[in-house]
Design goal:
551 residues; alpha/beta; TIM Barrel; Immunoglobulin-like; seven-stranded parallel beta sheet; five-stranded antiparallel beta sheet; 17 helices; 29% helix; globular; binds alpha-D-glucopyranose; binds calcium ion; glycosidase; EC 3.2.1.1; Alpha-amylase; Alpha_amylase; O16G_dom_2
Length: 551
């Protein structure tokens, strides 16, 4: 694959509501982000992805947009955004915005007009069906039917996600034109591109037929009939040609449901997107990303195999977007390290494990200081709509209330949405007011100030990983290979080109391991747990290293 400008970016995801509050209302905002740009520059990242900042009633914290052209007042004004653009530019940081166009908010003027006036053209901007009962048995991602009845009519509208997120009707060419022109206006402003939300849901099985139920509610997951359906390629190609291509923008798509055999279309040299997130590794602990109440046991071997299969498929077609956290996932140390979630050596091992994989690496806010899951005592302490649904759904499927609470404590999206821990104080330096969501913990270790002051911290480790990646192009542009492994818990991968090779080796267990390895080399990065001898590599529990191999 020919080199592209976005391949060498290092992306940091900001969940604006929880990153930094600037005015004491307890809600993070754009001016808060501006005040932390020096921090981000010091970490070394080159691009930020900001979760939605647009006007929204916040049923899904901004993933329900009621005006694509303006900011939510709690996040700031257009003038604040323009200042953010200018300030990021000064520091060599690019901006990715979140593009949410599978659905809008039900408070968007288009939807409001469609409700008020069934004759208006906006009725066809959404999916309405006249019926005496719900048109089929598809289940929405946030629970219940995908169909919501209008109060005074025998009419239902379709929502893949929450009922306050009606799906836009991509079959309507005029609606598509409105979307393209909106996208291009943001690109004109000078953003680098978009993270593209839930984009594989834009095409539905237009027969809208009921299917075999898969739960006690008599419903069936809508992913079977409305995700990555035949015909979606027409919309995605048009989107690419009309918007992303002319601006040479970067796009990273949330595209669940795309098989490895379809990657050429999605991320190939002329693919719809620059890269897509693969959730196979992130969701290895649950039956599916949408069914947390069905936990799945896994081993490090499973994790390794998922990463390997994914990476080889991605390399074959295009470019990857390695990540271990985002605003929909629980905290990675709690998921992957379990009892070792606060073990500093293990945290660094986890960072090394994914950071030099093939693709553009993403870091989620708080990941760089090892933030962990929280523990809440009652359902009332949760904000996330998905957690509330999974709690009730879990109980309907046979869990006790206690078990259902444990499931959402573990998997809740709120885990990654708690305030960013800047310092060791009750409101963790996030706000001078009352934070909108309770902080995870007040910790003397897991906060930015403490870790920046400690040369051996996880934060410093991430800073170094980034610096090394910038200095070592083969870690970006080189091929990836997975050498034969001899120890179940030890991960290995090599990045290489014609002249050089680097080995990443990670012991993801609490036992010491020895790996016979006849091509020793020099340690470039390590968490202090690795010794190289003439023909083997000794790894302490959670020992990990980047080794420059002798060629
Ligand atoms: C994506 C977002 C998630 C949101 C959903 C609906 O999965 O990442 O946060 O709830 O889309 O927009
Ligand atoms: Ca604020």
């Amino acid at each position: 694959m020919e080199n592209k400008w976005w391949q060498s970016e290092i992306v940091y995801q900001i969940y604006p509501r929880s990153f930094q509050d600037s005015n004491g209302d307890g809600i993070g905002d754009v001016r808060g982000i501006i005040s932390r740009l020096d921090y981000l520059a010091e970490l070394g990242i080159t691009m930020i992805w900001i979760s939605p900042i647009f006007k929204s009633p916040m049923a899904d914290n901004g993933y329900d947009i009621s005006d694509y052209f303006d900011l939510a007042p709690e996040f700031g004004t257009m003038a604040d955004f323009e200042e953010l653009l200018a300030e990021t530019k000064k520091r060599g940081i690019k901006i990715l915005l979140d593009l949410v166009v599978n659905h809008s908010s039900d408070e968007h003027p288009w939807f409001q007009e469609a409700l008020k006036n069934p004759q208006s053209k906006y009725r066809d901007y959404y999916i309405f069906k006249e019926a005496n009962e719900r048109p089929n048995n598809w289940r929405s991602i946030f629970g219940g039917s995908v169909w919501e009845k209008l109060p005074d009519e025998e009419v239902y509208y379709y929502h893949t996600f929450h009922k306050k997120q009606p799906d836009l009707n991509w079959e309507n060419p005029e609606l598509r034109e409105e979307i393209y022109s909106m996208i291009n206006q943001w690109l004109e402003l000078g953003i680098a591109g978009f993270r593209v939300d839930a984009i594989t849901f834009i095409k539905k099985d237009l027969s809208f037929k009921s299917i075999e139920p898969d739960g006690v509610d008599g419903l069936a997951k809508c992913t079977k009939t409305s995700r990555n359906q035949p015909g979606i390629e027409v919309f995605l190609k048009e989107l690419q040609e009309r918007c992303f291509k002319p601006y040479d923008s970067v796009t990273v798509a949330e595209a669940p449901g795309v098989g490895y055999d379809e990657l050429d279309d999605f991320i190939g040299p002329d693919g719809f997107f620059s890269m897509i997130f693969d959730f196979k590794a992130a969701d290895l602990d649950v039956a599916s990303g949408t069914e947390w109440f069905k936990p799945v046991a896994w081993t490090p071997e499973d994790l390794f195999n998922r990463l390997k299969t994914s990476q080889l498929a991605i390399q074959e077609s295009g470019w990857g977007a390695p990540f271990i956290e985002n605003h929909d996932q629980n905290r990675a140390p709690s998921k992957y390290l379990k009892d070792n979630q606060t073990n500093p050596v293990a945290l660094k091992a986890l960072a090394l494990l994914y950071f030099y994989l093939y693709g553009t690496p993403f870091i989620y806010q708080g990941q760089e200081i090892g933030m962990v899951n929280f523990e809440r005592e009652s359902l009332d302490d949760f904000d996330d709509i998905s957690s509330i649904d999974q709690y009730h759904r879990g109980m309907a499927e046979g869990l006790t209330a206690e078990e259902a609470l444990a499931v959402i404590n573990y998997r809740s999206r709120d885990n990654s949405r708690t305030p960013m821990q800047w310092e060791d104080s009750p409101s963790v330096g996030f706000t001078t007011g009352q934070p909108w969501l309770a902080v995870t913990e007040q910790s003397s270790v897991r906060n930015v100030a403490a870790q920046m002051a400690d040369p051996d911290s996880l934060w410093r480790f991430y800073q170094n990983l980034i610096a090394v990646k910038k200095e070592t192009p083969v870690l970006t542009h080189g091929q990836i290979a997975f050498p034969e492994r001899t120890e179940e818990d030890v991960f290995l991968y090599r990045r290489y080109d014609e002249d050089q090779a680097y080995l990443v080796i990670v012991n993801l267990s609490g036992q010491a391991q020895t790996v016979v390895y006849p091509r020793p080399g020099e340690l470039v990065v390590t968490n202090q747990g690795v010794t190289i001898t003439t023909n083997d590599i000794k790894l302490a529990p959670f020992g990990a290293a980047l080794i420059k191999e002798e060629c």
